[in-house]
């Protein structure tokens, strides 16, 4: 296996412009939506897949991965790639301050760990100083190693209250407090180069599992309508059911996190095709990392209770026929654990095949990029991962057994 992986790296790390096609043979090729080709071959040329089948074209360089399974690179539709902690003594993950350019440079570690997890594309849902846009552009130029990034700039949020009467208000380019201001904030992100819009429709995050709604239905509708008018999709964060109801009614393309979603809202999600991105595992991460964050006493209990509500809501949503997309909500030290959400989906009643779809074809559809990513079919980018085992039989193979990662026809991560 190691010999095969080394050969793959040697063949694909640097390919001349007119290189011969690369034919990668594996014990199993997962093409899309669970369709498999035993002892299949994927042909790669100029960064894209040109054929999938059982034989290599004449003149192709053939790499045999032996017993490994070849499958599409996975997509994480909820990350915060520029949230970086340098572990400086006396600090916690949150609260560090540095120049934006330094943050972008240091966040390469998050990008590398994400690739190592088998994730070749992310939808990044919030950063400061437009560092996500800078990181995306550097990756696209080939100046930085990382997954494909679709970014939002600043998430839309209410203007924070001043610390004391008369003190300056710490507003951001995403701040808005009325439908008209929401329209302007959406346009501001699009003008800055955002690919997608993010709106914080409730409080909640880190050890705070409060579910109180922030934006009104009219404000959410203004955000959705403006985003769609400008050709962008919108994700709305809501920890609770009230914000979830209004987000879905307003026409959000995806609903992030929400618990206790009522049956009528679930039915509307099915009717409209709204994606649910529950991010169950990110609160498991906060429980495990609570010492790093120095959360207050009682945080673990609150997080565990929210996990249970999140999980039960996911089970109900899956039973109702709601479409899911995999999002980790990875921040700081969670990168590399991006795909653990898939195991929660299987526990919630999905088959391994259904779970994998949330990180491939479903996620690509949510991004509006099915023609380029999310499958191993002819025409898409050659974003592929080699895993040990059969993820259609045991989802852990995709979570823990990634052995090589190819992005755009080039091997970016070799054997572990």
Question: Could you characterize the architecture of this molecule?
Answer:
It is a single chain. This protein has 416 residues and is an alpha/beta fold. 35% of the residues lie in helices and 19% in strands. It has helices at 2-12, 100-106, 108-116, 131-141, 179-192, 217-229, 241-250, 263-272, 280-288, 290-293, 299-320, 341-347, 352-358, 361-367, 396-400; strands spanning 22-25, 28-32, 35-38, 41-45, 48-53, 61-64, 69-72, 74-79, 119-124, 148-151, 196-200, 233-237, 254-256, 275-277, 323-324, 384-387, 402-407, 410-413. Strands 3-2-7-16-17-18 form a six-stranded mixed β-sheet, with helices on both faces. It has a five-stranded parallel β-sheet with strand order 11-12-13-14-15, sandwiched between helices. A four-stranded mixed β-sheet has the order 5-4-1-6, covered by helices on one side. β11 (196-200), α6 and β12 (233-237) form a beta-alpha-beta unit. α6 (217-229) runs parallel beside α7, α9 (280-288) packs antiparallel against α11 (299-320) and α12 crosses α13. The termini are close together.
């Amino acid at each position: 296996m190691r010999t095969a992986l080394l050969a793959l790296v040697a063949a694909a790390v640097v390919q001349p412009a007119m290189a011969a096609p690369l034919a990668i043979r594996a014990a199993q090729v997962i093409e899309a939506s669970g369709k498999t080709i035993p002892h299949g071959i994927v042909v790669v040329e100029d960064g894209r897949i040109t054929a999938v089948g059982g034989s290599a074209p004449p003149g192709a360089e053939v790499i045999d991965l032996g017993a490994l399974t070849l499958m599409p690179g996975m997509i994480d539709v909820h990350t915060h790639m520029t949230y970086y902690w340098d572990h400086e003594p006396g600090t916690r993950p949150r609260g560090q301050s540095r120049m934006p350019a330094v943050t972008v440079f240091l966040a390469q570690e998050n990008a590398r760990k994400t690739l190592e997890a088998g994730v070749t594309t992310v939808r990044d849902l919030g950063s400061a100083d437009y560092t996500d846009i800078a990181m995306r552009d550097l990756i696209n130029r080939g100046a930085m190693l990382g997954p494909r990034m679709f970014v939002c700039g600043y998430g839309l949020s209410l203007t924070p209250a001043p610390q004391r009467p008369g003190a300056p208000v710490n507003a951001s380019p995403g701040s808005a407090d009325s439908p008209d201001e929401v329209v302007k904030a959406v346009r501001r992100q699009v003008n800055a180069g955002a690919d997608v819009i993010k709106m914080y429709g409730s409080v909640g995050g880190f050890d705070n599992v409060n579910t109180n709604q922030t934006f009104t239905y009219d404000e959410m509708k203004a955000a959705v309508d403006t985003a769609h008018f400008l050709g962008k999709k919108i994700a709305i964060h809501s920890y609770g059911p009230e914000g979830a109801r209004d987000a879905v009614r307003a026409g959000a393309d995806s609903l992030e996190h929400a618990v206790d979603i009522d049956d009528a809202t679930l039915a509307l999600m099915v009717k409209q095709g709204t994606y649910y991105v529950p991010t169950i595992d990110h609160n498991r991460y906060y429980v495990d990392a609570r010492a790093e964050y120095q959360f207050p006493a009682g945080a673990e209990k609150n997080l565990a209770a929210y996990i249970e509500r999140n999980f039960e809501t996911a089970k109900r949503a899956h039973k109702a026929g709601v479409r899911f997309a995999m999002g980790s909500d990875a921040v700081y030290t969670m990168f590399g654990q991006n795909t653990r959400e898939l195991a929660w989906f299987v526990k919630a009643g999905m088959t391994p095949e259904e779970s994998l779809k949330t990180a491939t074809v479903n996620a690509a559809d949510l991004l509006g990029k099915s023609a380029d990513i999310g499958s191993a079919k002819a025409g898409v980018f050659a974003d592929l991962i080699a895993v040990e085992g059969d993820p259609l039989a045991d989802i852990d193979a995709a979570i823990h057994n990634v052995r090589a990662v190819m992005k755009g026809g080039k091997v970016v991560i070799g054997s572990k």
